[in-house]
Amino acid sequence: MNPDIFLPPQVAWATGALAGGPLIRKTTLLADLPGVFANGEAWQCGDPKQSVYDVDVLGSPTGEGALFVGVTHLHAGSVGDEFFMTRGHFHARREQGEVYFGLRGAGLLLLQTEAGDARLEQVTAGSVHIIPPFTAHRLINTGKETLSSLAVWPAVAGHDYAALAEGFALRVFDAGLGFEVRHG
User: Fold this and answer.
1) In which element (H, E) is residue 171 found?
2) Per-residue DSSP letter, 89
């Protein structure tokens, strides 16, 4: 007797496209990000229907011990001279970590502790990022093409956006041929 062999979901490493399983897509528009960018006037002048990022998550079980797998596709662009970024969050269950894998594009991962200590990691195709427990995280696209990153995190982690209502300690701006990091 031969056992059944199943084809699991797939990721196209070059594009970050997920296939072969139930997929949930969440699109975050510029209008969904009030107070995220430093220049509120530039944000208000932007197209509210502009897609800033999409997150595709494989449908999977929930509960203790289960993992979610998803890909964030952060589009290239800026509000004023501040690069497009994800909203960023702590986990509601702060003791839960996460792993990011850079798939395409160029950008930064902003990590910040509850005490406000912040650091940046370069995200490129092939980079691996271990996000420790008790650490907020945000992707920033500093390139000219979509930045895609695969993430794996505990299904019970949850998101806490309210803890960052005052923003992150660091901001990243376009400096012509590169970027400039400024304190929040």
Assistant:
1) strand 170-174
2) B
